């Protein structure tokens, strides 16, 4: 049985082309408001290791249980991969783990330094294709088109296209 493509959108990467993909019903866009809330992204991913302050949600919007916030078995490996940049990448690790736990196929970000430069390792670990939303629109759309043609059934898109 096929399912809709799922894209995790790091908040600043919710650009007009991403909105069009969502409007055309080609994919479900999800995110979690760790740093700030983008009210235009309606679907929330499963959070990882979040504090209540990071949730940026009211009680009625929190559609998860606190026990669901536990990190995946990949979380520590994500943190190790991201650590090399010298920046505090803890929220980046939360975003990536949320995408993994939510069975996303694609991760869109504008974070070139901490995420895009490490995409090969992250993609191998998570099975999620990572794109720079601002500079790789065409590549992302080609990938989405391939996934759509494959009528994906697996939550790990990279395995489908190998």
Can you give me a brief rundown of this structure?
The chain is an alpha/beta fold and 162 residues long. It is built from 7 helices and 5 strands. A 5-stranded parallel beta sheet has the order 3-2-1-4-5, sandwiched between helices.
Write the layout of secondary structure elements.
Blueprint lengths: L4 E5 L6 H8 L3 E5 L11 E2 L7 H4 L19 H9 L6 H12 L4 E4 L9 H8 L2 E4 L4 H14 L6 H4 L2
Parallel strand pairs: 1-2, 1-4, 2-3, 4-5
Helix pairs in contact: 3-4
Written overview of the protein:
- The protein is α/β, with parallel strands linked by helices.
- The chain has one domain.
- Helix content is 36%, strand content 12%.
- It has seven helices and five strands.
- It has helices spanning 16-23, 52-55, 75-83, 90-101, 119-126, 137-150, 157-160; strands at residues 5-9, 27-31, 43-44, 106-109, 129-132.
- It has a five-stranded parallel beta sheet, sandwiched between helices.
- Strand 4, helix 5 (119-126) and strand 5 (129-132) form a beta-alpha-beta unit.
- Helix 3 packs antiparallel against helix 4.
- The longest helix is centred in the last third of the chain and has 14 residues, at 137-150.
- The protein is globular.
- The two termini are 20 Å apart.
- The mean pLDDT is 82.
């Amino acid at each position: 049985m096929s399912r809709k493509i799922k894209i995790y959108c790091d908040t600043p990467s919710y650009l007009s082309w991403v909105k069009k993909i969502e409007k055309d019903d080609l994919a479900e866009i999800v995110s979690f408001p760790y740093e700030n809330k983008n009210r235009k992204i309606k679907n929330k991913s499963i959070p990882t290791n979040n504090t209540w302050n990071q949730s940026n949600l009211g009680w009625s919007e929190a559609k998860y249980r606190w026990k669901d916030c536990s990190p995946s078995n990949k979380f520590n490996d994500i943190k190790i991969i991201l650590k090399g940049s010298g920046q505090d990448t803890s929220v980046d690790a939360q975003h990536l783990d949320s995408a993994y736990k939510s069975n996303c196929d694609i991760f869109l970000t504008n974070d070139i330094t901490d995420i895009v430069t490490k995409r090969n390792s992250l993609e191998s670990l998570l099975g999620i294709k990572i794109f720079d939303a601002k500079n790789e629109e065409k590549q992302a759309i080609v990938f989405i088109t391939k996934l759509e043609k494959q009528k994906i059934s697996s939550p790990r898109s990279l395995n489908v296209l190998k």
